[in-house]
Amino acid sequence: MTDSIALRRITSHHAHIYYDPATTRPVAERLREQIGERFPVQLGRWHDVLVGPHTSAMYQVAFAVETFATFVPWLMLNRQGLSVLVHPNTGRPRDDHLVHGLWLGPALPIRGEVLGELDDGPDPISPVVPNTRPTLAP
User: Is 94 helix (H, G, I), strand (E, B) or coil?
Assistant: First the structure.
């Protein structure tokens, strides 16, 4: 039997928005623009080639714990057919992606073998500093 994980271990969240560079990148671009117009999030770089544990092109949206309640339901209804992985950041990347994550749309394979057990590597999760200035309500 495992102990329950305290919610205070969640320091932030990521949404990985997946797309096909040849066919659905314009859809992903529109969605990214809508996110930036509505939410105080940190929009990550475009990755048209595979990176880390991801088996499809994607970009990451980092957001604070307090943004979850408005952003994730909006994303559920407005993801425009794209697959999205939403996961917490608890300091345990493998569990965050493979055990605690939730999928919006079809789930895609994640390469868990490239994820560490603990965030003790060179790039631990940094605090979310929004790089968007929302102008519209969610």
Answer: helix
Whole-number Å distance between alpha carbons of 38 and 23: 25
Strands (E), 6-117: 12-19, 42-47, 57-63, 84-89, 102-104
Residues in the chain: 138
Using alpha carbons, select from 38, 47, 52 the residue that is nearest to residue 17: 47
pTM (2 decimals)? 0.89
When pLDDT is cut at 50, 70 and 90, the band that residue 1 belongs to is very low
Q: Which of 133, 18, 4, 127 is nearest to 65 (CA)?
A: 127
If you compute the radius of gyration of the chain from its CA atoms, what whole number of angstroms results?
15
Give the pairing of strands 84-89 and 102-104: antiparallel
